[in-house]
Amino acid sequence: MSKATTGLDQGLYDYILDTTLREPEVLARLRAETDSHPRAGMQISPDQGQLLGLLVELIGAKRIIEIGTFTGYSSTAMALAMPADGELIACDLSEEYTAMARRYWAEAGVDGRVDLRIAPAVETLDALIADGRSGTFDMAFIDADKESYQDYYERCLTLVRPGGLIAVDNVLWHGRVTDASDTTVDTQAIRAFNAGLKDDGRVTLSMLSVADGLTLARKR
Question: 202 CB contacts (<8 Å, ≥6 apart)?
């Protein structure tokens, strides 16, 4: 029994991957290719991708919104866990980054499930709301610019059905959330988002220490 979360050194993290990771070959190749990208740090970890896939299966998600796609690891992991008639709307600004994602969606055989929208995510979300899609999505994953987290969250809360799930990445922000000397815009935005979510009675809440911190919020 422990009163606190066990800290992970590299050896213990490697043990977790060695004993639990069931990474499809297409995802392993995507991860390896992204490792050479100048912005490789934006990619989620493989254990987090596996967790997202498990969450998709647990809630039977058929309609998902992803905010922040990058090279496609998280979207591919979730799309692989969806049924064949599933729909994943992927929001991103970069044609360059998502070109790799498109290639791997096709290789994974899930390109028919993914609808990539190249536009500011707030615009895409507002358009979905205007189109009458409120309450029709099962899950949302937020992993984009930190200043806009609250805007994304509020719109996702509108679009996700009661009982649906919103997953928010980077909520520990590499530990900078506890560094009082860090007053950068992104760090302050994450702190404010985390603090506000604690008292949000519209959701049931849990913050996990997986990867860079993952908050799960189930819409009541």
Answer: 157, 219, 220
CB atoms < 10 A from the CB of 188, how many? 15
Distance CA 33, CA 18 (A): 21
Structure confidence at residue 1 as a pLDDT band (50, 70, 90): low
Answer positive or negative: Cα dihedral of 103, 109, 112, 116.
Answer: negative
Displacement of CA 75 from its chain's centroid (Å) = 8
The yes-or-no verdict on residue 108 having pLDDT over 90 is yes
Burial environment of residue 212 by CB neighbours within 10 A (0 to 12, 13 to 18, 19 or more): middle
Give the integer Cα–Cα distance in Å for 142 and 107: 24
The gap from C-alpha 21 to its chain's centroid, in whole angstroms, comes to: 18
How far the first Cα of the chain sits from its last, in Å, is 31
DSSP class of residue 40 equals G
Return the structure tokens found at 11: 């050896």
pTM above the 0.90 mark?
yes
Q: Which helix (H) or strand (E) covers residue 207, if one does?
A: strand 203-208
Q: In the numeric block, which tokens belong to residue 112? A: 């028919």
Q: What is the pLDDT of residues 64-79, one digit of tens each?
A: 999 999 999 999 999 9
Helices (H), 116-184: 121-130, 149-159
